[in-house]
Automatic annotation (TrEMBL):
PANTHER family (UniProt xref): HTH-TYPE TRANSCRIPTIONAL REGULATOR RV0890C-RELATED (PTHR47691:SF3), REGULATOR-RELATED (PTHR47691)
Keyword Acyltransferase carried by entry: no
Cited InterPro entries: BTAD, HTH_77, OmpR/PhoB-type_DNA-bd, P-loop_NTPase, Sig_transdc_resp-reg_C-effctor, TPR-like_helical_dom_sf, WH-like_DNA-bd_sf
Keywords: ATP-binding, DNA-binding, Nucleotide-binding
Chain segments annotated as coiled-coil in the UniProt record: none
Family the UniProt entry places it in: Belongs to the AfsR/DnrI/RedD regulatory family.
Name recorded for this polypeptide: ATP-binding protein
All residue ranges annotated as the OmpR/PhoB-type domain in the record: 1-96
DNA-binding region, residue intervals: 1-96
GO molecular function terms listed in the Swiss-Prot or TrEMBL record: ATP binding
Superkingdom, natural source: Bacteria
Length: 836
């Protein structure tokens, strides 16, 4: 069996199974015996260790009981192990072999006299690796443990000093600086440790810091103890001052300068990101690893380079820029070595980037890490383990995922509000430029379809009112678009004639800088209005002929391809299926629509979390919780992939059915305490409900259309949109009429949805009555009665009264819902009877 006290008390069998000792005092007895190092411990002292002043009635018997429990626990784990607890006068002793107790093994290794520095360093490293934490960590307040732990901690510190000197003899000065800085800070009066740190600093080419270290030690000794440094430390100080050759150890190399910083000079102004580079610099001061994340084309590289340039003075040993876009996973370390100018193997030192950069006061910029995220994460973790001097700034579409990482997410640029009239007044919503839509606009104006319908408005060339142009020019996305468009077309300027088109382009491209720059390059040939109207085919339109950018940045499609290619099959499936949602979706909706095939419903949540980490899925505000949405360009790309996979119809069906069920559930709770919550839910889902209704009408799915309209009639009335309710119900009746060549009433009878239609008509009639339009309300009530009558089992020949009622209802529907009336002009066989 093996026993550990260099950390919490631990017992393991020879086959590495943990052994449980159930009672606290039994574990305390074992620790007391182990602390004695195999020597007998008097029974009286064991009693004091276990019970202190609160002695049991019969101490000797109580101790024997605990010994018996300990023996039984050991024997249960490994038969015969009870003999390890031996009775030896004047008490008990623990008879384990020295190699079975980590403390005894540590002391044996630490005391070995290895003459060669390499062997000495290897043995000491093995000894120190036995430590799992403070000695006797779970008995820190017990007197016997305090004394034993203090002795072991002192031996541990001496071993670390010995190891430092062995590594100095091997020339590992720069790597040692990182290891010794924190240790010397925790033991500021330990002169041997401070001397090792001074020698490591001096051997790393940091003479001034070695002298500063000596001054700190001298001042502290004088202030706290009234003493001067000892002769060894004073002699080392003098040797450093005169740069004594005796300090030069064969194999130790002073820090060679890194390759000079060669940050590319920006060719254009950084637009719309005024305070962000300084924020990244501040993050670098607070954290040793900062990862700039965000979707493709958002400008991560540009921001990181600007931040690196501004932070240059804080890194006197240089800035190393490593472009990883074209690097294979097994070539990351070699790329860092080459960028830093470290010698190749066979030179003065090995081309190990961790060893070569350890302890450097330098900034390492790792750009475009997403396709080599695993090796980059391992390398960054190794850098963080070497010391506090080196800083790492990475750009990737997902976090590196290691301890100590500080994330700086980059969002697309803010875009203009959807309601441009708000530019002439106060802007609403969060941020300096307001929400994406006016607070008074109906919720549907946030949908993708509503934004796309702007093309008709733009063809008219409606000007932006008042001083809206001036305020529009201050929106960051517009600033970037106008700056790049003016560079491509010197005659271009933002004015009242093109402001609406420019605003629509910026919104439809989600403020994504790469997309805006590609679009701006087309302004000279297309003009803003045509460009906005053509964005439905954005991947054909947004192309660049620039030869100074990598292929992945020459088209919007290639930029999204760069993010798509590394995705696992489940991630691709969920991403393309999410694209059917308009205006975002909840996690529940994603699980309903994205599961299927090789993707289990239980897997969808984890996949979405990974897609959020990869910046392909964005988070959106929702009063009811978190919503997920895709940038419009990503959604367009994903819809193409959905069609390529042959899944469009099936996923759209799941989407439409889910939102019909949402509408029906809301209808069931339209009264009572849940009413307001469901109103808010329908507000949030307005774009998805509209897409489902349009999908039903497009496919002629009358049953789905009627489910949606009958369930949402109360909501439309509540929101004061009776006109929209009428049009939607008319479209549903028209959809019902087409496949059956019947009018809306006959179709309702065939489909068996007459009660739902009649209920919706009753609700609309109530809204008309409240509005004082009694005649219109009467016609709607008549239509409802006709629908109910038409739903009855038809007779061979309708009665004259029923025929007149049907005719009146048809007239009412034709007045209220023109779409249904037009669809119903293909008359049913029963209509001639109605006309008699």
């Amino acid at each position: 069996m093996r026993f550990g006290v260099l950390g919490p008390l631990e017992i393991r069998t020879d086959d590495d199974r943990p052994v449980r000792v159930p009672e606290l005092k039994v574990r305390l007895l074992l620790a007391a015996l182990l602390a004695a190092g195999g020597r007998p411990v008097p029974a009286e002292r064991l009693v004091r260790d276990l019970w202190g002043d609160a002695l049991p009635a019969r101490p000797a018997a109580a101790l024997r009981a605990k010994v018996s429990q300990l023996r039984r626990a050991l024997d249960d784990a490994e038969p015969g192990a009870r003999a390890l607890v031996a009775a030896r006068a004047p008490g008990y002793a623990f008879a384990a072999a020295p190699g079975a107790v980590d403390a005894l093994r540590f002391e044996s290794l630490a005391a070995r006299a290895e003459p060669a520095p390499a062997s000495r360093a290897s043995v000491l490293t093995e000894a120190l690796a036995l430590w799992r934490g403070p000695a006797f960590a779970d008995f820190a307040d017990v007197p016997f443990a305090v004394a034993a732990a203090a002795r072991l901690e002192e031996r541990r510190l001496t071993a670390r000093e010995d190891l430092a000197e062995a590594r100095l003899a091997l020339g590992e000065h720069r790597a040692l600086v990182a290891d010794l800085t924190d240790l010397a800070g925790r033991h500021p009066l330990r002169e041997r440790l401070q001397a090792a740190l001074m020698r490591a600093l001096y051997g790393s080419g940091r003479q001034h810091e070695a002298l500063q270290c000596y001054e700190r030690v001298r001042n502290r000794l004088r202030d706290e103890l009234g003493l001067d440094p000892g002769p060894e430390l004073a002699a080392l100080h003098q040797a450093i001052l005169r740069q004594d050759p005796s300090l030069d150890v064969p194999g130790a190399v002073a820090a060679a300068p890194l390759a000079p910083a060669r940050l590319p000079v920006p060719r254009t102004e950084l637009v719309g990101r005024d305070g962000e580079p300084d924020a990244i610099v501040a993050a670098l001061r607070a954290s040793r690893l900062v990862t700039v994340t965000g979707p493709g084309g958002v400008g991560k590289t540009r921001l990181a380079l600007e931040a690196a340039a501004r932070a240059g003075d804080a890194f006197p040993e240089g800035i190393v820029l490593v472009e990883l876009a074209g690097v294979a996973p097994d070539g990351v370390a070699e790329a860092v070595t080459a960028a830093a100018g470290l010698p190749e193997p066979g030179g003065t030192r090995a081309a190990d980037p961790v060893e070569g950069l350890a302890g450097r006061r330098a900034l390492l910029v790792l750009d475009n890490c997403e396709h080599v995220i695993e090796p980059v994460a391992k390398l960054a973790d190794a850098f963080l383990a070497t010391g506090a001097e080196l800083r790492v700034l990475a750009t990737a579409r997902e976090p590196l995922g290691i301890s100590g990482e500080h994330l700086y997410p980059v969002a697309p640029l803010p875009v203009p509000p959807a309601d441009l009239t708000s530019l002439d007044g106060g802007l609403s919503g969060p941020g300096p430029f307001g929400a994406t839509r006016s607070d008074t606009a109906p919720p549907e104006t946030a949908s993708v379809e509503a934004v796309r319908s702007e093309a008709a408005f733009l063809e008219v060339g409606a000007p932006v009112p008042g001083d809206g142009v001036r305020r529009l020019a201050d929106v960051p996305a517009v600033r970037l678009f106008v700056a790049r468009a003016a560079a491509a077309d010197p005659g271009f300027a933002l004015d009242a004639s093109n402001a609406a088109a420019v605003a629509a382009v910026c919104r439809r491209l989600d403020g994504l800088p790469l997309a805006l720059e590609l679009a701006a390059a087309r302004v000279r040939a297309l003009g803003p209005a045509t460009l906005a109207a053509r964005l439905d085919d954005r991947f054909r339109v947004l192309r660049s002929q620039r030869r100074d950018v990598p292929p992945r940045q020459r088209t919007l499609h290639a930029a999204i391809d760069w993010s798509w290619e590394p995705l696992a099959p489940a991630e691709r499936a969920v991403l393309r299926r999410l694209a059917v949602h308009a205006g975002g979706c909840t996690l529940e909706a994603a699980e309903e629509t994205c599961a299927g095939g090789d993707v289990d419903r239980a897997e969808v949540m984890d996949v979405i979390v990974r897609l959020v980490d990869r910046s392909l899925v964005q988070l959106a505000d929702d009063p009811g919780g978190v919503r997920y949405r895709l940038l419009e360009s990503v959604a367009a790309y994903a819809l193409d992939r959905l069609a390529d996979a042959g899944e469009t119809a099936a996923v759209q069906d799941r989407h439409d059915d889910y939102y019909a069920r949402v509408a029906e559930c809301a209808d069931a709770y339209r009264t009572g305490p849940a009413r307001l919550r469901w109103l808010a839910r329908l507000d949030a889902e307005a774009a998805n409900l509209r897409r489902a209704l349009e999908s039903a009408a497009r496919r002629g799915d009358a049953r789905l259309a009627l489910r949606l309209t009958s369930s949402l009639a109360w909501y439309w009335i509540e929101r004061g949109r009776t006109g929209h309710a009428g049009r939607s119900l008319g479209a549903a009746l028209a959809a019902a009429a087409r496949p059956h060549h019947l009018d809306g009433l006959a179709a309702a009878r065939v489909l068996g949805d007459a009660p739902a239609i009649a209920s919706a008509l009753d609700g609309l009639a109530g809204a008309e009555l409240l509005a004082g339009r009694d005649d219109r309300a009467a016609r709607l009530l008549g239509a409802a009665a006709a629908v109910r009558e038409a739903a009855a089992p038809p007779e061979s020949v309708p009665s004259r009264e029923t025929a007149r009622l049907l005719a009146a209802a048809r007239t009412a529907l034709g007045t209220a819902f023109p779409a249904a009336y037009e669809a119903g002009r293909a008359r049913s066989p029963a209509e001639p009877a109605a006309e008699r």
